């Protein structure tokens, strides 16, 4: 089977569209899923979906205290410290 | 035969019209796909000037401008030919082929070669509808008309996203 959507990779094997979606037979598919189902090796086979590597953890009480200690505690900053020369 | 485009599935060679380039993309929502087309031809003809010189036994040539056109024959569909007032987002479909031609309104068009899937090739441009000449007879008991799009400018080669 000929896969015309492979033309959407550039000469360097980079996917040229903003989304990894293709339309085949009038139906939209996820590019990677479709290629996997049909045994097509993509030019950017090493492509991995972006993952969120940063973890958001709830701050502990101790951390809250440290933040408060380090904070200004309502003190006003001296204007001379921030004035631009 | 790899590379041959077989159009017998009925969804490969498609002429799409629109009052904007976005509407004229093959398969675009709101695009006016001309129905009942029997044959479709695209012509890209570079102009040439020939000249002869005394130091050569053969004539020489240089190119001038390219003249592009699209021609087809179709069975006349009443909505396509005379317009469909229910269509509000594409004035070419609203007005129909005859009114668009008669008003000399410029249209955007595309000719899909392989259908409307991702990566399929199409050529697109803009131009004027002409050459409408509907005919019918008792032996040929349906209205048939030729049509031409006189292309204004270049044809662009694109693949569908």
Structure write-up:
The complex is a heterodimer of chains A (85) and B (161). Chain A has a domain at 4-37. Helix content of chain A is 25%, strand content 9%. Chain A has three helices and two strands. Chain A has helices at residues 31-37, 61-70, 79-82, and strands at residues 21-24, 27-30. Chain A has a two-stranded antiparallel ribbon with strand order 1-2. Chain B has one domain: Elongation Factor Tu (Ef-tu), domain 3 (Beta Barrel), CATH 2.40.30. Chain B is globular, with a radius of gyration of 18 Å. The mean pLDDT of chain B is 96. Chain B starts with 13 loop residues before the first strand and ends with a strand. In chain B, strands 1, 2, 3, 4, 5, 6, 7 and 8 form an eight-stranded antiparallel sheet that branches. The longest helix of chain B is centred in the middle third of the chain and has 12 residues, at 91-102. Chain B is built from two helices and eight strands, in the order E-E-E-E-H-H-E-E-E-E.
Quick description:
The complex is a heterodimer of chains A (about 80) and B (about 160). Chain A has about 80 residues and is α+β, with helices and mostly antiparallel strands. Chain A is about 25% helix and about 10% strand.
